[in-house]
Amino acid sequence: MGPGSRIAEIRKERGLTQQELAEKLFVSRELVCKWESGERKPDYRTVEQIAAALGVDPERIVSEEDVILEELAECLPSEGAPGNGAAVASILNRFLKTLPDKACDVFVRRYRFHETPAEIGERYGVGDNYVRSVLARTRRKLKKYLKEVQ
Q1: What is the CATH number of the domain that holds 129?
Q2: How many structural domains is the chain composed of?
């Protein structure tokens, strides 16, 4: 069961319509419908807001680990990816050495220690949107790096 199905299930348990949930979140009913159908996926910050509106723990909708794995999956080439954990770790370690210290630390804090962008931002005195931008740029660099090493 995906996050959208879980949102729909919990919403119905709470006796809410899509419109009522949308109003609690200040979004359109159409967006709630797209989440529930799987047409769109909310990011983890939005999942936290949905969970709060429904009065449940965000992990009931989707785990942070699943979100992290999905973020990294976009970096992996569809064909020819390294087959074992040791090979992946070796490639990642070489890639991390190519990054500036701060970008490397942000990447490791997110994908190794599973810190949220807000937690990382607080550590560095920057906003979580800045952290998200650093992570997005670093994932693009990783994707390019992986293509080059194959």
Answers
A1: 1.10.10
A2: 2
